Amino acid sequence: MEGATTLIAAVSALLWPVIVIGALAIFRSPMKELILSAKSRKFTIKIGGQELTMDEATEQQAKLIGDLQSQITEIRALLARTNPVEVRAQPAFSGPQVRELSSVLWVDDEPKNNSYFVEELGRLGVRVDLARTTSEGLSKAGNRRYSVIISDMGRREDGKDNFRAGLDFLKTVRETDSDIPFIIFCSSRGVREHQEEAMRLGANGITASATELSEFLNLARLKKEA
Q1: Measured between alpha carbons, how far is 42 from 32 in angstroms, rounded to an integer?
Q2: Among 114, 125, 149, 207, which one is least packed by beta carbons within 10 Å?
C-alpha cells in the first residue's frame, strides 16, 4: 500500500508539469492577446450597452467628476453671495482664489492618492511637479516659482512618521516666501486637529475636500476657458 502511494505521488509530480505545459500550449494565443491587451490598456467594459476601453471609460468618468465639481463650486459661490454668513466655507480660506494657475508643487509621500486631480490639472494645461518629502519639496520650490504649493499633512520621512510634516514644510516655506499660496490637503482628522495652527503659520487654507481645493484653485474658470 505504501508503495502504491509513493508511485501515485511520483506520477502526480510528473504529470503536473505536463498539464501546465499543455495548458500553456492550448491557451497560448488567448493569453498572449490578454497580455498585449493589458499592456495597451485595451480591456473593455460594457456601459450603457456600449463597449468602452478602459481609457475611454476613465476619460468619461474624469469629465463627469470634473463637471460635478464645477457645478458644486458655482452653487457654493451663488449661495455665498446671497447668504455669506451661513454658507461660509469650512474650513475657511484666507486670501483670494488663485487667478494665474500655471504650475503646482504638490508634496505628498503617496502621490497616487491625488492621481485624478493631477490628471485634471494636466488636462487644463497646468504643470504639476510632485515631491515625496519636505526636503525634495524645498529643493524644487527653491529652483522654480510656482503658482501654488499643495502639501499633505503626515508623511514618512527619514525612516520616521512625521504627523506634522505639512506644518513643518509650511513654516520653512514662510520663512523665505510670505506670498506664495499654500494649501494643506489632508484628512478630515488633520483638518480638525491642525486647522488653527496651519492658518496661524500662514496657510491659505487646509481642507479634506477635493471640491474646496478645486474652488480655491479656481478650476471652474480654467475649465470654461479650456
Answers
A1: 13
A2: 125
Cell numbers 510670505: residue: 178
User: How many CA atoms are closer than 13 Å to the CA of 82, on its beta-carbon side?
Assistant: 6
Flag whether 64 is in a domain: no
pLDDT tens per residue across span 110-131: 998 888 888 889 888 999 999 9
Q: How confident is the model at residue 90 (pLDDT cuts 50, 70, 90)?
A: very low
Work out how many domains the chain is built from and give that number: 1
Q: What is the DSSP string of 26-56?
A: HTHHHHHHHHHHHHTT--EEEETTEEEEHHH
Region of poorest pLDDT, from 9-18, 120-129, 187-196: 9-18
State the Cα–Cα distance between residues 205 and 95, nearest whole angstrom: 9
Residues with Cβ within 8 Å of residue 62, at least 6 apart in sequence: 116, 119, 120, 123
| DSSP code per residue over 95-121 | SPPPSS--EEEEE-S-GGGGHHHHHHH
Rounded distance, CA 133 to CA 95, Å? Answer: 26
**What pTM, to 2 d.p., does this model score?**
0.66
3-state secondary structure of 166: helix
Rounded distance between C-alpha atoms, residue 112 and residue 10, angstroms: 48
180 domain residue, yes or no: yes
Asked, for residue 70, whether it belongs to a domain, the answer is: no
**β strands within the chain, DSSP E:** 44-47, 50-53, 103-107, 127-131, 148-151, 155-157, 160-162, 182-185, 205-207
Report the CATH number at residue 102.
3.40.50.2300
